[in-house]
Amino acid sequence: MLYDYEGKCEREVDILIESVISGCEIKIAVECTELSKPVGIRALESFKEKHRKLGINKTVVVSHSGFSKPAKEYAIANHIKTLTFNAARSENWSKHFAPLKKLAMYGRSYKLAQLAIDCSAELANSGFQFGLDTKVIINGALMDVGSFASKVWSESNVAQSHFKELRENELGGAQEPWAEITVELGKNHTFEDRNGARIQPDKLHIRMNYSSNYRELNPKPVEYDGKQYLAGGFFDKKKSEFAHFALTESSGQINGSMEFSSNLIPD
């Protein structure tokens, strides 16, 4: 979303590409249309005016149905780049983009559901009281055990390494989907209870409830100035949710940018 200072509101462009050329920052806006008939002058005028208000330096319009002859002439006169989407056939996909044909995204939130520790029988009988008010000593400072668990969870990379299992568990109809990991602490972390008693547990068990929002991105190959991009996204007007991305490939490395609404991540 970009801010329209004339209209005093935020406005959306389908794909925003930001770059630096000769030390100058430029913004390229790509607008995609799915009209059943060729795009006319009126649509191009609308995009041009919107982009002027948003400080866009270059306007690119992509149409599934092409452009009328007057629209093409208008585009040339006003320095608007017009493109037609390649048909989504396998021969139109570069070898680098082919694995991304079914590209999708998700937003997910986790909530701590349960914590438990394993320790020796001697420590278990020491009177240590484990609870959410327990602290963990990190570099001489105290961190509450909930924050420590969230940090450990994030560092475990479970969202990526077990994506398929987490998705199937959630979409399979589980009322409150959850996931659990066990972390070997190796007695390298000191825990302190409310009374100041300290122990060094062997393991920490973390259970998280989670909620996700899955979205298809419908990627399409687009050629712009002789360079191939992969572009796509969605806009859900009813939920005010959106995401747009543009990727390019250079020497086998894929780079790009993505913009999405914060409400894609469930509360």
Automatic annotation (TrEMBL):
Residues 11-83 form the Restriction endonuclease type IV Mrr domain. GO terms for molecular function: DNA binding; endonuclease activity. It comes from Pseudomonas cichorii. One of its GO terms (biological process) is DNA restriction-modification system. This is Restriction endonuclease type IV Mrr domain-containing protein. It holds the Pfam family Mrr_cat. SUPFAM superfamilies: Restriction endonuclease-like. InterPro entries: Restrct_endonuc-II-like, Restrct_endonuc_IV_Mrr.
